């Protein structure tokens, strides 16, 4: 049984491996120098056929006889070359280099379209590599760039950095190169500090017993003699010239040389792994990280400088340097390749440092900075806020609402002046002022006609004129219930809904009606006084002077009154209910008692829910909205029972109308702001 289970698990694993898509990796090599870095990666990819599919493209000087036709060593390493592209235009000047790039760009599209790699691996800073990266980027092929972020001299720097900007992923050799790439705004998550792949071979194969045989074979090569004759230097016994040396044998020459001299990157990179003394001539490698084995002769204007450098360097031995790698680059790169997500967006993003956003005419900037001053006049507090176009409360100010008209107006203007001053620092352009207040309001004139009893000395009050004169801004005024509906229309559940009703369930009951996308005010501005819809001919007295209104049953004040009555009769508190003696009795205590099994509290709340539900049904039968939004502190409690009552008692065509609770935390302020933001921007655009 156990053996059978193991067999099933093995078969499942095999099926998983077969179904997993292999990453199609194309490695493009342009010359023998980059092949020495790419070959270890190619061997690594080839040794994991379950994860990768290798394609090899050869171009550049690999195919030139003068450079030894080095493509043959790729074939000798048993790699199948998928394409050979002759891209070198003969010549020693800059024009030939440009023409070579152009020729490569002409030939590469057909090859890349045929191979269709998931990722292209390019190395270094040669012009051939720039052509490869350009073609791949324009053909939406992911690019892994090796040895980016390094600094040297001549045109190489510009080419290397250009390839880095085109590349999607980076495998760099040193910590400094990694920091350079980050400074170039490349995504840190896509940068691998791998080390140089050639170091994997350098550090594992340079201790060979037959190194002297290798050295002697190259010092007596007929090929070298022919080249020396061609160059006219064969007369000097200390010079040997060759087209090409296989990398493994080249390692032995570098490792055991008395000194290495020239301007090749091999001198400042690979030679350091052996501690071989190096004389670096000229500025080509300026800026590269080097070990102490490298002596620079940047201005080789006289032979004496070079002779003196040779006297200092020849025959010395330096500590081995691992600046460019520790011999484990290839395993890191293969692991990195396995993590590449081909479903990730191809378009690369740059990690620019944070800077202050410039002032511009970008629409998002306009929406953020165009703002309104919103004022909410409540029975307890007076609040002012800066609200931006997206409905964000940028800053809010709260003070107790004074009891007299003069003190209230003085405080309103002071709070608004403070907010205007702060708006400048917050880069908010105030378009106008919106005022939300309790009571009956004439929005056309900006006048409070009749106030609620909670706000004293607040009837027949012109709000628009003094505020507009003091702040030099347009002013809009409306009832708090209407403002709640406007807030839902612009920022809440009512956005995009042509017909809906907002019902405020707070200290009182109020609301607003949106019909055909417009707020309904009525002929005398008392439309949507939803709290004063009568649901009983002989119900409790209401603050409006009538009786049997929704507000008399379902408002916070009505529930608080009933809670106090039960408390006075010692019928409110039940076992397990946390209630302090000094704590004022509120509607919340009534709800808590009902939830804990108090039947009398539950009966009161059922009656309140029924009254509210019946009142809302009357609204549905009159204006027939498609949505009801409950707002205020009691909304979450009333939503479910009101929805149930509608489904039971409304006409069949209205029973499916949905009841939701508002998600807006500041409906009065947002509604006041929306009057400004909607009407002011209509004039601007």
Automatic annotation (TrEMBL):
Coiled coil: none annotated. It holds the Pfam family Epimerase_2. One of its GO terms (molecular function) is N-acylmannosamine kinase activity. Gene3D superfamilies: 3.30.420.40, Glycogen Phosphorylase B (3.40.50.2000). Residues 50-217, 230-337 form the UDP-N-acetylglucosamine 2-epimerase domain. CDD domains: ASKHA_NBD_ROK_GNE. This is UDP-N-acetylglucosamine 2-epimerase domain-containing protein. The gene is GNE.
């Amino acid at each position: 049984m156990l053996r059978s289970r193991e067999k099933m698990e093995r078969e499942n694993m095999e099926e998983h491996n077969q179904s997993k898509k292999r990453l199609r990796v194309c490695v493009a090599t342009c010359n023998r120098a980059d092949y020495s870095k790419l070959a270890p990666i190619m061997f690594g990819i080839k040794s994991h056929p379950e994860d990768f599919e290798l394609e090899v493209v050869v171009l550049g000087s690999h195919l030139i006889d003068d450079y030894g036709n080095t493509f043959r060593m790729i074939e000798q390493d048993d790699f199948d070359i998928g394409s050979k592209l002759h891209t070198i235009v003969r010549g020693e000047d800059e024009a030939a280099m440009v023409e070579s790039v152009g020729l490569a760009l002409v030939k590469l599209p057909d090859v890349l379209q045929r191979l269709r790699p998931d990722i292209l691996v390019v190395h270094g800073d040669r012009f051939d590599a720039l052509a490869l990266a350009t073609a791949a980027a324009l053909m939406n092929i992911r690019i892994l760039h090796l040895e980016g972020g390094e600094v040297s001299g001549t045109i190489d720097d510009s080419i290397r950095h250009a390839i880095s900007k085109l590349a999607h992923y980076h495998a760099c050799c040193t910590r400094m190169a990694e920091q350079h790439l980050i400074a170039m705004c490349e995504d840190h998550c896509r940068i691998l500090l791998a080390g140089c792949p050639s170091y994997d071979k350098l550090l594992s194969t340079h201790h060979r017993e037959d190194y002297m045989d290798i050295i002697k074979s190259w010092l007596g090569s007929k090929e070298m003699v022919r080249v020396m004759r061609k160059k006219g230097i064969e007369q000097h016994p200390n010079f040997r010239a060759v087209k090409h040396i296989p990398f493994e044998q080249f390692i032995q020459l570098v490792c055991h040389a008395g000194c290495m001299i020239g301007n090749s990157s091999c001198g400042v990179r690979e030679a350091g792994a052996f501690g071989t003394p190096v004389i670096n001539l000229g500025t080509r490698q300026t800026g590269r990280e080097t070990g102490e084995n490298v002596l620079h002769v940047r201005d080789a204007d006289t032979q004496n400088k070079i002779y003196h450098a040779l006297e200092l360097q020849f025959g010395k031995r330096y500590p081995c340097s691992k600046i460019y790698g520790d011999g484990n680059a290839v395993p890191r790169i293969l692991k990195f390749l396995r993590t590449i997500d081909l479903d990730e967006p191809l378009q690369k993003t740059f990690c620019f440092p944070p800077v202050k956003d410039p002032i511009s005419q970008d629409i998002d900037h306009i929406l953020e900075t165009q703002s309104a001053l919103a004022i909410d006049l409540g029975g307890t507090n007076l609040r002012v806020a800066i609200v931006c176009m997206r409905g964000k409360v940028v800053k809010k100010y709260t003070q107790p609402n004074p009891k007299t008209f003069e003190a209230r107006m003085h405080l309103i203007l002071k709070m608004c002046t403070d907010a205007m001053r702060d708006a400048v620092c917050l880069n908010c352009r105030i378009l106008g002022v919106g005022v939300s207040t309790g009571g009956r309001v004439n929005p056309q004139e900006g006048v409070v006609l009749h106030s609620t009893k909670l706000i004293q000395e607040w009837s027949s009050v012109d709000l628009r004129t003094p505020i507009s004169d003091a702040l030099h801004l347009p002013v809009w005024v409306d009832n708090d219930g209407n403002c709640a509906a406007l807030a839902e229309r612009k920022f809440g559940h009512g956005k995009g809904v042509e017909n809906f009703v907002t019902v405020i369930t707070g200290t009182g009951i109020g609301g607003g009606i949106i019909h055909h996308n417009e707020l309904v005010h009525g002929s005398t501005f008392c439309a949507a006084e939803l709290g004063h819809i009568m649901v009983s001919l002989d119900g409790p007295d209401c603050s409006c002077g009538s009786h049997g209104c929704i507000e008399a049953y379902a408002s916070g004040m009505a529930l608080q009154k009933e809670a106090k009555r039960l408390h006075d009769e010692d019928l409110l508190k039940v076992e397990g209910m946390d209630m302090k003696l000094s704590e004022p009795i509120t509607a919340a205590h009534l709800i808590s008692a009902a939830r804990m099994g108090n039947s009398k509290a539950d009966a009161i709340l059922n009656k309140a829910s029924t009254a509210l539900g019946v009142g809302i049904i009357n609204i549905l039968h009159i204006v027939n909205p498609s949505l009801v939004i409950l707002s205020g502190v009691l909304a979450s409690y009333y939503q479910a029972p009101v929805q149930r009552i509608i489904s039971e008692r409304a006409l069949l065509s209205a029973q499916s109308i949905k009841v939701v609770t508002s998600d807006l935390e500041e409906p009065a302020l947002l509604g006041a702001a929306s009057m400004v933001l909607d009407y002011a921007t209509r004039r601007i655009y």
